Amino acid sequence: MDKKQHIAIFTTASLPWMTGTAVNPLFRAAYLSKDGERKVTLVIPWLSLKDQGLVYPSNITFISPSEQEKYVRRWLEERTGFTFGFSIRFYPGRFSKDKRSILAAGDISEIIPDEEADIAVLEEPEHLTWYHHGKRWKIKFRMVIGIIHTNYLEYVKREKKGMQAFLLKIINSWVVGIYCHKVIRLSAATQDYPKSIICNVHGVNPKFLEIYKEKIEQQQNGKQVFTKGAYYIGKMVWNKGYKELLKLLHDHQTELAGIEVDLYGNGEDSDQVQEAAKKLELAVRVHPGRDHADPLFHDFKVFLNPSTTDVVCTTTAEALAMGKIVVCANHPSNEFFKQFPNCWTYDDSNGFVEATCKALAEEPAQLTDAQRHELSWEAATERFLKVTELDQVPTSKPSNIPQKNFMSTSFNFRKNMEDASAYVHYVASGSEASRKVFGAIPGSLQPNEQQCKELGLAIPAAKRGSRK
């Protein structure tokens, strides 16, 4: 194997779907490959045209993986100004309407040839391994790192499905323990995992830091840089903070009289959010979603984000990078942001009112060079390499077997238990009946023939046999 580290980053979404697991792994791949010291491959889902129509916005579709790759690279280059040397490969994916998520079809570990299988980064490892049936990740790759993006338990709890949340917690711990050597939680807002590390290994699109530079230059030329008040941007579904924000505005209309708030987003609950906003005496305007880097947002001074379902909110980081004041809940998901002077947290509804009124009346503090760096993808990449110890990984796999007999016995017992547990999951995930019980998409044990052709994969024997 090449002496350079081979890092394969597997994720659960891809542009043009503007979701965190599409954007952040893309930037991670780019910045890990930037210095040329390691080989990086980003592995993203390929959807059939029918599923593309359900997921991708503005009727954007692709007839081939190469066409989508061009779109992804162009989007990245427009935002960074760089051409990056990482590879992009696709795995067959299917869209689950009930989960609003893309799920893998077949054994996606096979996308990386055995001779390149060194380090795997699983962005949303629980999501990627719930229905995994194939080669065991820990055996194929020297190191497997899971990055926990999503607070799945919170979403289920909000739907008042207590037993489902309990089972999901157990299943998540099971599959992540089986398949990952290291686990990174972006914040303490996620489910806890044994031996996991809390570290925000995400940065912001460099465009937002450029916007801040432009604002400072305008300010130095005597211009008033923030001429608009408060806003919020996010996927327009109730559990993304809209429910909390509209309730806060409704309950404190007297104290907040005279303020104006603009909401931007697209989503299943857009019509309901619009109706709720119309019932307020305050000036709350609802708009379609836009790119947060759009000039439309540059002049807003205050970003309101009461959401507590995020793990680390990307739009909060972007607002801070643009030099805005952020008013957000005192919640574990916002712990990383508390180091910045423009992050103002509140503990209750009265605190929200006080922080919002004060933010609208005052000017944001200027960011230091160190603070701007801390928000960047360069700093996020440094944190990732440090916390995973990839900056000092030996070229050969270290021995994990302790020397003392009693320790060796304990280690072997744990290893045997894990092997047995992995075998149980392998058997269960190989049965269509059990897969259906746990919510897998029917027929996703193997990719369909059309996707195999589009991706240049061998058509599974079972699929070939069905044509006879």
From TrEMBL:
One function term, GO molecular function aspect: digalactosyldiacylglycerol synthase activity
Cellular compartments per GO CC:
chloroplast outer membrane
Catalysed reaction(s) here are: a 1,2-diacyl-3-O-(beta-D-galactosyl)-sn-glycerol + UDP-alpha-D-galactose = a 1,2-diacyl-3-O-[alpha-D-galactosyl-(1->6)-beta-D-galactosyl]-sn-glycerol + UDP + H(+)
Gene3D superfamilies per the record? Answer: Glycogen Phosphorylase B
CDD domains, per database record: Glycosyltransferase_GTB-type (cd01635)
EC class (word): transferase
Q: Which InterPro entries match?
A: DGDG1/2
Keyword check for Chloroplast: yes
What keywords would UniProt list here? Chloroplast, Glycosyltransferase, Membrane, Plastid, Plastid outer membrane, Signal, Transferase
Q: Where in the cell is it found?
A: Plastid, Chloroplast outer membrane
Provide the E.C. number(s) assigned to this enzyme: 2.4.1.241
Q: What is the top-level taxon of the source organism?
A: Eukaryota
UniProt keyword Transferase present? yes
Biological process (GO) annotations?
galactolipid biosynthetic process
Q: Which family does it belong to?
A: Belongs to the glycosyltransferase group 1 family. Glycosyltransferase 4 subfamily.
State the name under which the record lists this protein: Digalactosyldiacylglycerol synthase 2, chloroplastic
Lineage of origin: Eukaryota, Viridiplantae, Streptophyta, Embryophyta, Tracheophyta
Gene coding for it: LOC108985884
